[in-house]
Amino acid sequence: MRVRRIIQLLAVLLAAVMMVSCSRPSGGSSEPSDQGAERKVLEVGATGEPAGMDMITVDGAGTPFVLLYNVYETLVKLDAERNVKPLLATEWEMSPDRLTYTFHLDPQAKFADGSPVDAAAVVASFQRIIDGAGTGQVKGNFAPLKAVRAVEDKVVELELHAPSNYFLLSLTTPAGIVVNPAADVASLNETPAGSGPYQLGEWEPGSKVSLVRNEQYWGTPPHYDEVNFRYYADPNAMNTAMLSGQLDIISNLTVPQSIGQFADTSKYTVHEGVTDGEVLLSFNNSNPALAKREVRQAIHHAIDRQAVVDAAWGGKGELIGSMVPPGEPWYEDLSDTYPYDPEKAKELLAQAGHAQGLTLRLRVPSLPYAPPAARSIQSQLRAVGIEVEIEELDFARWLDVVFSQGDYDMTIVAHVEPRDLRMFAREGNYLHYSNPDFDKLMQEADEGDETAFVEKQKEAARLLTADAPVDWLFLLPNIIVTTPDIDGVQADQTSLSFDVTLLASSR
Amino acid sequence: MKRSSLWAGAALVGFVVLVAIVGFFWTPFSPTSNGPTPLAAPGWPHLLGTDAFGTDVLSRLMAGAKVVLLVGVLSVLGAAVVGVPLGMAAAMLPRWAGEIPARLADILYGFPALLLAILFAAALGGSTWTAVMAIGIATVPAFVRVARAATLQVVSQPFVEAAELAGVSRFVIAGRHVWPNIAPLVWVQASVSFGIAILSEAGLSYLGLGSGPDAPTWGRMLREAQDHLFSTPILALWPGLAVAIATLGFNLLGDGLRDVLDPRLRERP
């Protein structure tokens, strides 16, 4: 009995040692090839699972990642260069007063059940949001929309409350999807009803979402017959699956430290692009200490952001210093606004009346980047006299406690929505931040002409950086790993969609 | 030869306790501050190297021993304080009443510590105390069972029956006659449970359900090492070794104590 236990314990010891020498599976990507039918199947590894299938009512980036552009289509879509391109609409005009858009739908376009995508379907989809359905983000995107009308069978007219430069972009987001009006709205969360090249196949919560080819698709048919999104709670397990040939694509490598595992270019192609995911150290601007701008600026000066990226994300990720990612027309490099300067930080803290120090709670979600970034920041802030208490919350609980209720002092999270500078103008944001000057600039940008759109947003971003309502830590990189035969990969994640319609294999 | 596991266990446990005590007062470097040389190989001045934050691994291990022992002591002590009286009651109460704590313990056996910890973490947020509670509650049934089985043997002895006939109250019987006879078995169980508690604590903080990212625990170190398994695999070795040594020590100690204290084993020639 005792001998057996000792043997068991020795086995544990041995396992600990073996874990270290992590054997790398040999053998290439030997896809289990289907005989006969020659079905082309793509296996995609991913980490953020959809919480539901109705993008209008379900929060989280997991749903549009799978469905947008693949299962659901929008009037216009965003391409890799952030340009708005035709999709269901072949062309569109704007009235001279910029209050009315007229869209001409593709006459070929039809839903997966064969019924045509007509103006009535667009009206039904958009009216649902005007009538008050949708998440905060969806409603925010469609806030400028006043009315939607069917002019002809294939012509639809959108009327706005005020001119909005953002609106055309909003149509490319989940808010702009066109849903088959024949489908029961209550069933959309299980069975999406779109017009895209794929339909939802099997959905096994916790492990995979399968997309199968829409045989009725009206446009260019996609290369793959079936696309399986496989979900991994542990990113290292996803790497192992890729190394053992179970996956064709890692849609986003969330352990950048492990990128060396895919160095063999004869087996893997690594695409390094950017996302719109700004990783923020968010402040609760209603906290008595953090309400003082000097304290927020002191924290900016106290953090060596490069050290944070090195420790938390393997040094991959650009320093941005503002809410605008490079690539946007209104991007300016503001990353030098608050150079790392602990002495300056102490001075600012003393000015704000916190010379004896300060204690703040840092409540982070258990996402790959947050706890390590928190640990690095805790040590840096301690050096200037700010004691940080870290608490790690499960993501669902974090969404509730921090994001919805706003009960926190500081948190760390990536904001992945494209063009989310306007989030700071949104009422009731979780930052408890409001700045009338900023709101005014953003409104002028949205309603002004194209020059104003760019210039006013530059000004707004500069104002925001000076006011420091959050600390912009770094921009999440988009690291995609594929087998070398796959092309059509979009390196930059510009929309919320993982667009599989453009992917093809030379194999 | 007979006591070799006792001495080996005591030596390993003594070593861990010594490291924890030293780590409480002094570590070579700060266990929570970033350092200038991340991912340094073992050498001088960082004997076991540094992690991705540049923090000294040896210092973190030493500081982590304190958390491990704290969680172990509190959860096992709590489980014993609740479980032993329940087990004694299960054996000494009339049959139908005694069944209640015994079956409750059986039901609790069905919940692994991990599941309890996930429930607590969802309700209260992950922390050292969540881990203590989850491990403690999951350990209670073991004490109930041991105490009940041992008490059943003791109460059937003539001296207990004599005390009962003499009108001595059940509480006095439990305290004066039963407890001294079952105590050795409880100590053995405590030592074995301690080993399991250390392993559970490491598992929980590895999953992010135990102590927060700022508390240097062995499980958390294993989790952080996982991201560097490809580039700096040695980071996973140290905390894994520490967990293995501590668990092995307490298990050997438990076995050794059983040999020495268990009256049934002692009576054998």
What's the topology here?
The complex is a heterodimer of chains A (507) and B (269).
Chain A: H1 2-20, E1 41-46, H2 62-67, E2 76-78, E3 84-86, E4 89-94, E5 100-105, H3 119-130, H4 136-141, E6 145-152, E7 155-160, H5 167-170, E8 198-204, E9 208-213, E10 226-231, H6 235-243, E11 249-250, E12 269-283, H7 293-302, H8 305-313, H9 342-351, E13 358-365, H10 370-382, E14 386-393, H11 395-404, E15 410-415, H12 436-447, H13 450-467, E16 470-482, E17 486-487, E18 504-505
Parallel strand pairs in A: 1-10, 1-11, 13-14
Antiparallel strand pairs in A: 2-3, 4-5, 5-7, 6-7, 8-9, 9-10, 11-16, 12-15, 12-16, 17-18
Helix pairs in contact in A: 7-9, 8-10, 12-13
Chain B: H1 4-25, H2 57-92, H3 95-109, H4 113-124, H5 128-155, H6 158-165, H7 170-206, H8 218-226, H9 234-261, H10 263-267
Helix pairs in contact in B: 1-2, 1-9, 2-3, 2-5, 2-7, 3-5, 4-5, 5-7, 6-7, 7-8, 7-9, 8-9
Describe the structure.
The complex is a heterodimer of chains A (507) and B (269). Chain A is built from 13 helices and 18 strands. By secondary structure, chain A is an alpha+beta fold. Among the domains of chain A are: 73-186, Dipeptide-binding Protein, Domain 1 (Dipeptide-binding Protein, domain 1, Alpha-Beta Complex); 276-477, Dipeptide-binding Protein, Domain 3 (Dipeptide-binding Protein, domain 3, Roll), CATH 3.10.105.10. In chain A, strands 8-9-10-1-11-16-12-15 form an 8-stranded mixed sheet. Chain B is 74% helix and 0% strand. Chain B contains 10 helices and no strands. Chain B has helices at 4-25, 57-92, 95-109, 113-124, 128-155, 158-165, 170-206, 218-226, 234-261, 263-267. In chain B, helix 1 (4-25) packs across helix 9 (234-261). The longest helix of chain B has 37 residues, at 170-206. Chain B starts with a helix and ends with a helix. The mean pLDDT of chain B is 85. Chain A binds chain B through residues 2, 5-6, 9, 12-13, 16-17, 19-22, 236, 255, 257-258, 260-261, 307, 310-311, 364, 366, 371-372, 374-376, 378-380, 382-383, 388-394, 397, and chain B through 5, 32-34, 38, 52-55, 121-122, 125-127, 208, 212-214, 224, 226-231, 233-234, 236-237, 240-241, 243-244, 247-248, 251-252, 255.
